[in-house]
Amino acid sequence: MTIDLLNKKIWIITLVLVGVLTYPTWIIYKTTIYSSLLSFWLSFCAGILLCIYVLIKTRFLSKNNFKKLTKSKLLLVRVIMVLAFSIVTIIISGIILNFFILSINYIGHSEEPYSKEKYEILKVGRQSGSFRNHNFMRASNLIIKYKNRKEKIILPYSDFEILKDKKQIQLTTREGRLGFDIIENYELLNY
pLDDT tens-digit profile of 86-132? Predict the structure, then answer.
């Protein structure tokens, strides 16, 4: 398969950018009340568009790249490559897009005063770490009823045992530039 030097540089820059942006995106995501469904659909649509653009622009699937394969194997290889490539582009574009959305929301917050409100805890869960034997991205999850919809709040994993007994949470929030609320502080309540 032939891939020119420009394509290699673009992929290397993209992968380094994703590696650098993953952790800050996770940190900002933890402090923002941001819909996971919105995040998924933005990532999915941007990834599909980027995938189609790159496949057409680079002529990645042209017959010249697969001269030694028969027709049946050629079709199978093309389908597998398109699926793998689209999954990778969806993940990459999702991380980059969510980083910029959350950063704009967080950095450009409004100067309005903070609001303190109590919310009922509907469900407590936990999220395991992404790497074996490491605490990276390990967290406790709370599902609360926030402004008449269920939202997931991510808290430190060390609070998991304390969360089991609590019934309410008091959040100190402020509105971000794009309208997503930013959690400044929280307090767990028994009543």
Answer: 888 888 888 888 888 888 888 866 667 778 888 888 888 776 655 55
Prediction pTM value: 0.68
In sequence order, which residues have a C-beta less than 8 Å from that of residue 30 and are 6 or more positions away?
139, 154
Q: Extract the tokens encoding 75.
A: 């079709």
Task: At 57, list the tokens.
Answer: 């622009």
* CA-based end-to-end distance of the chain: 64
Give the integer Cα–Cα distance in Å for 141 and 126: 5
Specify which residues 154 forms β-bridges with: 141
Q: Which two tokens stand for residue 177?
A: 């530039």
Q: How many CA atoms lie within 13 A of 173 on its CB side?
A: 20
| Pairwise CA distance, residues 39 & 43, whole Å | 6
Alpha helices, H only, 63-183: 71-107, 160-163
